[in-house]
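Homework-ish question, so no full write-ups if that breaks the rules, but can someone show me the predicted structure for this set?
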Amino acid sequence: MFSASCHYGLQAMFYIASHSTEEKNISLNEIASDKNIPQHFLSKILQLLVKHKLLISMKGPNGGFRLSRSPENITLIEIVKAIDGLDIFNQCGIGFRECNEDDPCPIHTDYSRIREHVQNLFETKTLEALTEDVLNGDSLVKFTK
Amino acid sequence: MFSASCHYGLQAMFYIASHSTEEKNISLNEIASDKNIPQHFLSKILQLLVKHKLLISMKGPNGGFRLSRSPENITLIEIVKAIDGLDIFNQCGIGFRECNEDDPCPIHTDYSRIREHVQNLFETKTLEALTEDVLNGDSLVKFTK
DNA sequence: TTATATTTAGAGTTTTATATCTAAAAATCT
DNA sequence: AGATTTTTAGATATAAAACTCTAAATATAA
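A: Not a homework solution, just the prediction itself:
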């Protein structure tokens, strides 16, 4: 569904949301080792997220990354948009470029309903909601990779 | 969601289902030009589908491809399985390898519900059902690419 | 039996995604 | 000011996906 870059970005944002505090930035290295992501590759992705103003970065000792806004104001779709773009939410299930409501491919109706579910999920889920799930024990994120 | 190869495969199977008759095989070239798919690339994909026994091929004049079984017995998931494999239907939405029911990622519950919808769609939709839609005018497949 | 139409197969190319390496820039701390 | 830590950036490398080219194999038909 999403590219590896996008997965890495989502994981990183999620990690930052649940580990940074007023005083503490999260360093590239910390995320990369905890989530088992190639460091320099992740670096590019975080730079993207900074450019898209989802993250703030600070250099030097005690530097690192933090969210640019509070986690209840950041939805997952913004992260996807910054990395993979939003094409996925409009693409035909069997790859027809011209497929749309007026000129539907054979699975258009069913598939677009599903796409809407995905889009809705990513539009409504905030980083806040996700970290809450973890604190409640509803989801565990102790694994790596 | 799926690779370009998989899209091509689905389109080709669908084209064959709706154009072949008792007497008529569908040639590689016919599909490639109608659906605007690189011919030799499509050739590899159809070979895969032959190996997976979804298609039968015949060489020589009047040769070409036809379905190995009647279209009501071929579901879309078999085509996906032959080309991309079934991983997509089990992968975590944010790329965690270890994500599962017992050790869920933060979006596991929502995302796996969606995956089930997709899987269900591809498991239940047959080539027959799709061609019917076209004959009923519910879906138009006059576009290329 | 020869010419023709078609699939099959293998090698090669191009493009894109993923990953690595090295060094510069900026901020902090001593 | 100098040493250190961290992000930023650019160049390079590797791998996978997408695509192309050429020729062999096989079947049909004249």
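Now go work out the reasoning yourself. Hint: Chain A has a mean pLDDT of 92.
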